[in-house]
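Sequence, please.
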């Protein structure tokens, strides 16, 4: 294999069972704490905890925040537009799953 064909992927494993603090979420997503707070205020992710210092995020929140940040960076979509896109994509995934189950049941 030549260097031209070598692909290197880097990433960080986020355990679904281990909740993340606001600071960890900020670091993993590559966004400021303030930006994560704005995304929470838009209702795109919902941490649990009574106040900002005690917020904890599930692993799925990382995917949602990263999606929003990519939409903003790559397409110039605002947070409300990203929230709508996320909602529609999740609904599409749900409907595809239902269709697949129906196909299996009919065969």
């Amino acid at each position: 294999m030549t260097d031209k064909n070598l692909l290197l992927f880097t990433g960080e494993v986020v355990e679904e069972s281990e909740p993340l603090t606001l600071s960890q979420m900020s670091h993993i997503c590559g966004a400021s704490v303030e930006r994560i707070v704005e995304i929470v205020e838009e209702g795109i992710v919902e941490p649990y905890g009574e106040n900002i210092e005690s917020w904890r995020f599930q692993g799925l929140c990382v995917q949602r925040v990263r999606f929003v940040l990519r939409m903003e960076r790559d397409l110039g979509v605002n947070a409300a537009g990203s929230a709508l896109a996320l909602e529609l994509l999740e609904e599409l995934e749900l409907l595809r799953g239902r269709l697949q189950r129906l196909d299996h049941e009919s065969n």
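The CA atoms of residues 70 and 76 lie 9 Å apart.
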